[in-house]
Amino acid sequence: MELKQLQADVHVITDPHRKEKNQYESEERDSLSLTISKMPCKRLNLCEYETHKLVRIQSVRLGSLKWTFNGVILMFICIVMFWNKEYQEHDYVVSSVTAKVKGVAMTSLPDVGDIVWDVVDYSGPSQGKNSFFVVTNVIVTKNQRQGKCPEVPPYGKVCWTDKDCVKGFWDQNSHGVQTGACVKFDVTQKTCEVSTWCPIETKKTPPKPALLASAENFTVLIKNNIRFPNFNFIRRNILPEMTDSYLKHCKFNRRTDPWCPIFRLGDIVQEARENFSEMAVEGGVIGIQIKWDCNLDGFLRNCLPKYSFRRLDEKESNRTLYPGLNFRFARYQTEKGVGERTLFKAFGIRFDVMVFGKAGKFSIIQLIIYIGSTLSYYALTTLFIDWLIGTSCFSKEARQNYSEKKVESVQDRQQCILCVSFVDENHIRVVKRSHRKSLQQVKPMSVHPFKDDIKHLSAMAGVLQKGHIIDKQPQALTRPSRPAWCLCGCCLPSTHPQEQLCCRMSRGRCITTSSLFEQLVLSRPLLEAALLYREPLCELTEGEQGTNALRHCAYNQYITWRFGAPPRESLPVIPSCSVWRIREEYSSQDGEYTGMRPSRTTSPQSSPNT
Known about the structure:
- The protein is of the alpha+beta class.
- It contains 16 helices and 18 strands.
- It has helices at 2-9, 16-37, 40-43, 60-83, 119-123, 244-249, 265-271, 276-282, 364-374, 379-389, 396-406, 457-464, 515-522, 524-534, 544-563, 576-585; strands spanning 88-92, 94-102, 105-109, 113-117, 131-150, 177-184, 190-198, 219-228, 233-236, 262-264, 284-295, 305-311, 326-335, 338-362, 417-421, 427-432, 446-449, 571-572.
- Strands 1, 5, 6, 7, 11, 12, 13 and 14 form an eight-stranded mixed beta sheet that branches.
- Helix 1 (2-9) packs antiparallel against helix 12, helix 13 crosses helix 15 (544-563) and helix 15 runs antiparallel to helix 16.
């Protein structure tokens, strides 16, 4: 049983003579590194490559979860790519629009008689680009002549005498220029006389129902020519398969004939969810939207217009000032050598044709850009699984093991992280060096399970089985003055806080009284075998140099026995009782020892005590 325990705890320690050789080799490497660092590519990091470190977890559950999430993400990427055609290069439409209205209506106007309205009469003046206007209602003031007449209230100023009127005065609400005379408007009031077309228009409210309500049966042919410059693609809404006979009889219907370019005005207003008879009274603005969504990829080529309609102005009279749409025009004639005109205040509907659209065509560059932009979605799988591992779905040991493998902590160079091992605990404590508290009393930063370092156990097992190791009885050394932080009774006082460490956390037997301490740490044959294993040609001489080599080997042997593989970036500390027991066995001739020298460059496998 002791042999098996020895095989589990033995570790080979480096020879101090080799330290000098390593130091020499290190100096050569530093010199070479200094030479290389003078190279331009080294200074500019041109001769370096960096890559990420991956941690592979052998788990069926996590592996299945990863591929499930990756599959869902891939499906989402593909759906979005085909739905939005992200693999295509796009170009926006350039278009022109012309409209031709047809229809005839007859109205009966008071004091005028029957009037026939054709396209010349009801189209009115040009309303701008991509628009056309249709008159639906009218107020007529006939037989106007140039002359003088009283201004119409409330635009005209009410007066009592000529002094109340200013000759030549006018403003934006006047129908003419004042003559300076105050004349009778009606039996109750007088207004200033103006020079204008007389009689002045007095009716302000349009008639109801609208005089040209039958305009809902008018039709309009909309011709829309489009072009996509990047693809040199030209098309119009009169499709190639449409014939002359078809265009003479077709009318747009969203269900039965959605591509016919001829529209009935009443249908347009109805598609905009409005009532033509009501809208015709005061007028308004209707938007005709033509959308081109074209796919120019080979056998999937498709480029057809889609029509939609909506009202663009505010239709409620009580919500807005000056509702509807109207303008004035006149027809001039000469009666007995005197020029006359008939004034029309026309109300109607303006139709604005708006064209939108884009075309897409396959582009390998756009496909590569889209794929590159979506690769980051796969990081969601890593984030989710990392979060899942950190939850209660996994045991504490599994979470800690994964964290240690995935996260590599680098400590501040100005700090010194130490690790201690107590004989009455089965784990290793990681603590921060304190300049005030004894190391025995410092609270741990973290706790790590003990890990055996079995790198050279097979070789050392052969040395132990040869029978050269003599089992000596351990010697319990009493100390005349036990410090307060000592709990085993075998430690010596020290003025350095980092050396004030006992082998126990509670009172009890000292580790130096264990038979294994004698065999693993103090046994000269084992220490000599460890030195020769590392340096077969090493000469184990008597004297100060040999004793120092054995003492350092004993320090490292204790570290391997009690710490195994210490946590990364931490420096193991040997208890005071064990340090002084080793020094008593392999003492220095002058009795002087450097003591513990914490350093960030010290290897965890090398002894911090000399």
